Amino acid sequence: MAGAVAALDAQPVVRGHDVAITAPHDRRIIVGRAPETTQAQALTALDAASAAQAAWDALGGHARADIPLRAADLMEARLEPLVALLSREAGKTLPDSVAEVREAVDFCRYYAARTREDFGAPKPLPGPTGETNQLSLHGKGVFLCISPWNFPLAIFTGQVAAALAAGNTVLAKPAETTPLIAFEAVRLLHEAGVPKDVLHLLPGSGPALGGWLLPDDRVAGVAFTGSTVTAQRINRALANRDGPIATLIAETGGQNAMIVDSTALPEQVVDDVIASAFLSAGQRCSALRVLCLQDDIADTMIAMITGAMDTLVLGDPSKLSSDIGPVISQAAADGLMAHIARMRETARILKALPLGEAHAHGSFVAPHLIEIGSIKELTREEFGPILHVLRYPASGLDALLADIRATGYGLTMGVHSRLEGTARRVFAASRCGNTYINRSMTGAVVGVQPFGGAGLSGTGPKAGGPYYLHRFASERTYTVNVAATGGNTQLFTMNEG
Ligand SMILES: NC(=O)c1ccc[n+]([C@@H]2O[C@H](COP(=O)([O-])OP(=O)(O)OC[C@H]3O[C@@H](n4cnc5c(N)ncnc54)[C@H](O)[C@@H]3O)[C@@H](O)[C@H]2O)c1
Ligand SMILES: N[C@@H](CCC=O)C(=O)O
C-alpha cells in the first residue's frame, strides 16, 4: 500500500496532521497515512465549492452525466488495486471487495442514466394556449456528503456521484478509518472530469468537521449514511441554524428481523441466515440481527444453523479461504464483546465460534448465536457478527410483527415461508424499506432493490432508486406568456392528422 501513501502525498487535497491507518486484521500493518482536515482548510474548501456551484449546475444534466460514466470505466480498469485497498484498509473479504467496486460502478452508471433522463432538459407541462410551462431540476448548492467505513467506496461514491449529478458541488467526508479508499475515489472522479473546485475531500474527525461546517448556511444539504445517533446529532445541528432550512438525507441503522415459519425450506433458511448475519462480519446495515423461528421448527433450525456456523473460517480477509474478516476497530470489537457479556447474564449463548492465534493482532469478533425471549430485550443495533434468535407461536405472528415495528427501525426484513399470504401479511405490517422473501436480506443491487429505510433507519430516500437524485435537487418552473410576443407558434406546426 506504499502507493496509496505516495499518491496521497502527491494530491492537492487539504492536509493537516497525518494519522496512520492500520489493517483491521493485523494492527502491525500500516496501510497508509491520511491527513486530518483543519478548520481553515474545511472553510477554504467550502468557499471554493460555494463559488463553483452555479457554473457546475449550468453545465446541465447531459454534460454532467458523462463524468460518472468515465469514472465507472476507470474504476473497472482499476479493480485489482481498489479491491486490495478495500481488503487491507476496511478488512473486507475479497468477494465483498469485488462486490463493492461493482456497486460503486453501478451507482455511477445508474445515476448517469437518471441524470440524462431527469436533468437533461426541462419537462414541458400542460397549460392554456398562449402560455408555455416548463419544469426543470437544479442543484441546491453545496452538499456535505458524510459516509461510513463499512462501504467506504460504494456508499462514498454513490452519495458523491448523486450530489454532483444533480448539480451540487460537494464536500466529501469519509469515515475516519477509511480515508485512503476515499482518496482513490476522489482522485478517480477528478480524473474523470469533475473540476477540483467542485469536489473536495475532507478526511478527519466527524464531530470536528460537523462542528465547523454544519452551522454554515452555505451547506445547502447533507447526505449522511451512518448510525442513527450521528444522524440525530446532524439533524439537531442543522435545525439550530437560522438561515434557509437545509436538506438532510439520512440512511442509518436497523434492528433487522427474519421471520421463518414452519413451511419454510430449511436448507435455504440456513444458507440465507449465515449469509445475512455473519458474512461481512455482520457489518452491513442490512444484516440480520434477530431470527424469529416458529416454535414448531426452532430446535431443528437452530441445530442446522449452529452446524453451518462450524464451517465458517475467520481470518485474513485477503485470503480466499476466509469467509469472515475482522470488525473495523478495537473499539467496535470491545463494544460487541460488552454486549455479549451482558447477554451472558440475561440470555442464552447457543453458539460461539472460537478465536485463535491467527486473530491475536487484529480486531476479530467470533460469530455468536444468542437466544432471547423477545426483540424488546435489544435496545440498539449491534453492528457485528452476533445473531439473536427467538421463538414465536404460529398464533403469535401479529404480536411479533408489532414488537418488530415497535423497535422504531425499518430497514430490512426477511421472510421464509412458502405461503405467499404470510409474506404479504408481513410486508403489509412492516415499515421496512427492503423486504426479502425466501432469500438472503443483504446485497441490494442498484436499480433492482433501491436501498434505504424509514423511522430510526433513515429519512426515506432509496439509494440506487429512480427518485434518489430528486432529493438532491430544487425544482423550478419557467412560464412564458407567448401571446405577448406573437402567440403560440407551436399551433402552426401541430400535426393535424
Ligand atoms: N442505511 C444505510 O444505507 C447504511 C449503510 C451503511 C451503514 N449504515 C449504518 O452506519 C453505521 C456504521 O457506520 P459508522 O460507524 O461509520 O457510523 P457513524 O455514525 O459513527 O459515522 C458515520 C460518519 O459520520 C461521521 N460523523 C460522526 N460524528 C459526526 C458529527 N457529529 N458530525 C458530522 N459527521 C459525523 C463519521 O466521521 C463518519 O464519517 C451503522 O449504524 C450502520 O447501520 C447505514
Ligand atoms: N446496501 C447494502 C447495505 C448497506 C449498508 O451497510 C446491502 O443491501 O447489503
From TrEMBL:
It holds the Pfam family Aldedh. PROSITE patterns: ALDEHYDE_DEHYDR_CYS. It catalyses: L-glutamate 5-semialdehyde + NAD(+) + H2O = L-glutamate + NADH + 2 H(+). It is an enzyme of class 1 (oxidoreductase). Pathway: Amino-acid degradation; L-proline degradation into L-glutamate; L-glutamate from L-proline: step 2/2. GO terms for biological process: L-proline catabolic process to L-glutamate. GO terms for cellular component: cytoplasmic side of plasma membrane. CDD domains: ALDH_PutA-P5CDH. Keywords: NAD, Oxidoreductase. GO terms for molecular function: L-glutamate gamma-semialdehyde dehydrogenase activity; proline dehydrogenase activity. Transmembrane segments: none annotated. Its EC number is 1.2.1.88. It comes from the Bacteria. The keyword NAD applies. Residues 19-475 form the Aldehyde dehydrogenase domain. PANTHER family: DELTA-1-PYRROLINE-5-CARBOXYLATE DEHYDROGENASE 1, ISOFORM A-RELATED, DELTA-1-PYRROLINE-5-CARBOXYLATE DEHYDROGENASE 2, ISOFORM A-RELATED. This is L-glutamate gamma-semialdehyde dehydrogenase. It comes from Hankyongella ginsenosidimutans.
